[in-house]
UniProtKB/TrEMBL annotation:
Gene Ontology MF term list: antiporter activity; xenobiotic transmembrane transporter activity
Protein name in UniProt: Putative MATE efflux family protein subfamily
GO CC terms of this entry: membrane
Family: Belongs to the multi antimicrobial extrusion (MATE) (TC 2.A.66.1) family.
Coiled coil: none
One Pfam family of this chain: MatE
Subcellular location: Membrane
Membrane-spanning ranges: 44-65, 77-98, 119-139, 159-177, 189-208, 214-242, 263-291, 297-319, 340-361, 373-392, 413-431, 437-458
InterPro entries: MATE_euk, MATE_fam
Main location: membrane
Amino acid sequence: MSSNIQPNETSYLLPSGNLNNRDTSSTIKLEEFRKELFLILKRALPVIFSYILQQALPTVGLFSLGHMRSEYLSASALANMFASVTGWSVCIGLATALDTLCSQAFTGSENPHLVGIHFQRGIILSIIIFCPISITWWYSYDLLIYLNIDEELSHLCNLYLKFLLIGALPYIIFENLKKFLQSQEIMNATTYILIIIFPINIALNYILVNHPTLGLGFIGAPLAVSISNWLMLMLGICYVAFVRGKSAWGGFSKQAFTEWGPFLKLGVPGIFMICSEWWAFEIIGILIAYFGNTQLAAHSVIMSTSALFYMIPLGLSVAGSNRIGNQLGNAKPNASRLTAYCSITLSLFFGACNSSALTIFRNFWSYFFTEDHSVAALVHSLLPIVALYQIFDGTSAVSGGLLRGQGKQSIGATVNLICYYVLALPIGYILGVKYNMGVIGFWWGLCLAIFLCSIFLLTSILRTDWKKDVEDCQQRIINEDLYAPI
């Protein structure tokens, strides 16, 4: 809400954070550093586990379809890629606005329901943005045919997307709900929910895909994902209603339909920040496909490996993002700086651990995924590059999360766009195509991009004026919803 609105007797005048009486010491003590380090790690662990389980849900469907026609497996992989590029990446990017708004409002506003209003705005805007996305999914057959994709593959992909559409909105709302809870320092909720959902999803895939009498075949896989998404959302709502998080809700508010500007100012750069990285990997996957099945299979193994190891920095990123937002909302510039330093330290440590693990298991890692010796040999050659990539990937992910907590999604978007599209893709193309290095050349391009991303993002964090960030946070709360009555 704009700052020229006059307060009334039910309004709040100032955010709860006060620069004059908080966080005066700028010296970081070893004991404080140790406590903050373990606090972030404690919050990150359940997030890491929940992301692993959530990412595994569509993978279960791939395993189920893998025992049927090969065309089914190809179509489901294409459909999941299509959904990620056109749908999930966009909506998850928009929801990064909640990393800033909810976490800062939770500790920075006297109004306990401001977090809930931001959450409702996120849901409304997500629904609006998903309307054209759903039309794209529904008519994806025509688009795929236009792109010269095989007719049967296009038909199956379109069929998969139509059934995935049933559970698309619940998934998107659940992503917003996760951020609503995480901003309130509730990190375990999604873990509990997914521990329940994961075995249900396995059972659904067996019944809907492979069961001799009840199985629906190909369409059973996306239907199982959609049902799981609905169950996730319902369990999430029940958690808020009956366990924790209800105090920040405050009921449905007409305010959620107003003042979308501040949300979009953060959410739109968030879309570019997430999509620029996500899409770059998909583009590279398409380019590598022209080099044949062996190169593409090796790339798929490496992508699966990177996705698995990425869960650790992703969890640290979420924990650091919400922690720093809470600290800024609480008007603690020096504590915010401490959170940033601890988060970066953890990213470097676990990045080194990931890199070491890939180096140690290099000789037989590929055989966890394939028995094809040519693919395994290529994976063996790629692993040193990917091991180096892990160090910078962790730093980049955590630094990006800290920027989201600060409300600086535009910096992350700019850095990602430059590093991936000005550097990674052109250099990868030159090395991969012109110098005939194939997948190895493309991964050297990605490695350079993530190295530069981590340097630029880390530099931005280290040069932050934390007192100004606190002032910006307080002004944001005042200008948006501070004057909202309870």
